[in-house]
Amino acid sequence: MAKPSPIAAPFSVRLTLYACVAGIVLMVGAVYAAVPLYRLFCKVTGYGGTTQVASADSNVILDRKVTIRLDSNVSNGLNWKFRPEVPTVSVRIGETATVFFHVENHGTTDTSGVATYNVQPDLAGSYFDKLQCFCFSDLKLKAGESLDVPVVFFVDPAIMKEHDLENLNEITLSYTFFPAKAAKSPVAELTGQTKPQL
By the 8 A CB rule, do 17 and 25 touch? Predict the structure, then answer.
């Protein structure tokens, strides 16, 4: 019976080691790629209530109206108060609307937060087009500071062709603020629109 070559064992060990390292590198790469790929998938399909981003107003406005329910939340670890100016707004499909949310730092130190959003029902996200939003921007508020931040949107008239939404009367737009490490710019510089004084 032939004895194994003294060189063969170290080579197979090295091959196994290289395979393990390559596997780890691929898994780490997959973890980093998962979030942007998932965001891209959600953006294209509207999956999970992901809204669309529009660059211009709709050129079609229909008579049919839909109620937009505005929901606001703040996660643990962020001593902020956050609420919509009004709980609901009624808009015609295709009509551009602007709503404001009031955010206030009730803490004793400057803090930063970032808002994520969701639209319900999920399928409606494919037809909910935002022209301006404060979401996914790190916002910094000084202790005691408050601000009104806008969302400008319209419901795409193409929603009328969606059989599963033909009886839709209400869409919920929900935001949740989470703590952020540090904002690069004050919140006022990121919103780009100020609330009109009454």
Answer: no
Radius of gyration of the chain (CA): 24
pLDDT per residue as tens digits for the range 31-52: 545 445 544 555 544 444 455 6
> Mean pLDDT over all residues of the chain?
80
CATH code: domain of residue 169 = 2.60.370.10
Residue 31 CA to residue 12 CA, distance in Å, equals 29
Whether 196 is in a domain gets the answer no
DSSP 159: G
**Do both 176 and 112 map to the same domain?**
yes
pLDDT tens for each residue of 54-94: 667 778 999 999 999 999 999 998 999 999 999 999 999 99
Give the number of domains in the chain.
2
Q: What are the phi and psi torsion angles at 119 (to 5°)?
A: -120, 135
